[in-house]
Amino acid sequence: MSRRFAALTALAAVCAALELVAGRGMSPATVWDVLGGGGDATERHILLQLRLPRLLVALGAGASLAVAGLVLQSALRNPLAGPEVTGVTPGAVLGAVTATALGLAGWDSPLAVVLAACAGGCTGAALLWLLAGRGRGDPAATAVHGVLVSAVLGGLTAMVLLVEPGELGSVVQWLVGTTEGRVWQHWHLLWPWALLWGSAAWLLAGPLTLLRCGDETALAAGLPVRRARTLALLCAVALTAGAVAAVGALGFVGLLVPHLAVALFGADLRVGLPGAAVVGAVVVCGADAVAQLSSRLLTAALETGGLTLPVGALTACLGAVLLLAVVRRTPDRTF
Asked: In sequence order, what are the residues at sequence separation of 6 or more whose Cβ sits closer than 8 angstroms to the Cβ of residue 228?
């Protein structure tokens, strides 16, 4: 396990270095010069005030979504339970968009955005919990209800944008997911939030491991199932809300990364949750670096200016392809 953590940490460092040199406006040699203390004022501003906080936000958001996904899948005993398909992410997006449209939140008040996103995520999770009813223990029924809840919340978000079309430009990042334009204020808000709720999720690693074995096993071991599941869902919602408020709705990160983390680190969540955090950080940081490089190549090929590929579009496409490949390779698997 220590070797796997070391390998992932090294991969995260490589992805971080790629992201710092992938953006437009500065050559890799200039980046290294600035990191060594050189460069002019403009170059230092671009690297230290724009690229570095963007990198840190990508790492923090990826870790938060991955941990939230693993907590949801463990608490609900559903391998298809992720923030994207359980109403949590769509609810957080709806909360952020509604608060912005009403003038209660905005980029000048990021804390209000996080609180609104958290309220929306809790609402989405509660709605799923109510609709699932007695079928909460059935993974297929929970997945179906989650898709329905997510669709309804997505429709409500579209209605808000129709009522306030002037807000479309300011909220499109929440709908797609992007790290573009993230500054130190976003990082200073994200890291304590992610550390607080990530630590709380790790403290629930033992109960979550029991919940993965089934309610009967957990009850036989003396675990208060309802209380443990409620606390776990609260951690997942809070982590998702913080990530959504920072980078928007990054697709498939919270759904697929937990499976990779369990494959690498096993079912013991005392190790799996930190492992999921590292894997999620690597995935989002690497995807953001690829998105920036792709934007540069497309801009040069099409001879257009200002073309930007959002990282959320890349994670959604790659995640959908990966999920399809997994399903086709294991057609007889029951989710």
From this structure: 75, 204, 207, 208, 210, 211, 218
Nearest alpha-carbon partner for 97 in 154, 12, 140: 154
Report d(CA 177, CA 51) in Å as an integer.
17
Residue 201's closest CA among 280, 121, 124, 277? 277
Nearest alpha carbon to residue 58 among 295, 241, 286, 293: 286
Structure tokens at 73: 């899948």
pLDDT digits (tens, 9 = 90+) for 266-288: 888 999 999 999 999 999 999 99
Q: CB neighbours (10 Å) of residue 185?
A: 13
Q: Which two tokens stand for residue 231?
A: 């606390």
Spatial separation of the C-alpha atoms in residues 66 and 264, rounded to whole Å: 14
Angle (CA) 225-147-121 rounded to 5° is: 60
Query: Rounded distance, CA 266 to CA 216, Å?
Result: 22
Kindly provide the b/e burial profile for residues 288-312, where b requires at least 16 CB atoms within 10 angstroms of the residue's own CB: bbbbbbebbeebeeeeeeebbbbbb
Helix (H, G, I), strand (E, B) or coil at 149: helix
CA-CA distance, 107 to 311, in Å (whole number)?
20
Q: Which residues contact 32 (CB under 8 A, 6 or more apart)?
A: none
Residues, the chain, total? 335
6-49: per-residue pLDDT in tens? Answer: 899 999 999 998 988 887 777 788 888 888 888 788 888 888 88
For the cut 70, the answer to whether the pLDDT of residue 80 exceeds it is yes
